[in-house]
Amino acid sequence: MTRPIPKSFHVKSFGCQMNVYDGERMTELLGAQGMTAAGADDADLVVLNTCHIREKAAEKVYSDIGRLRRGDGTRPMIAVAGCVAQAEGAEITRRAREVDIVVGPQAYHRLPDLVAKAARGETALDTDMPAASKFGALPRRAKQGPCAFLTVQEGCDKFCTYCVVPYTRGAEVSRPWRAVLDEARALVDVGAREITLLGQNVNAWAGEDERGRSQGLDGLIRALDRIPDLARIRYTTSHPADMTEELIAAHGEIGKLMPYLHLPVQSGSDRVLKAMNRSHSRDSYLAILDRVRAARPDIALSGDFIVGFPGESEADFEETLSLVRRVGYAQCFSFKYSARPGTPAAEMTDAFIPDAIASERLQRLQTLLNEQQLAFNRTSLGKHTEVLIERAGKLPGQMVGKSPWLQSVHLTTDAAIGEIIPVELVSAGPNSLGGAALR
Ligand code: SF4
Question: Global pTM?
Answer without folding.
Answer: 0.94
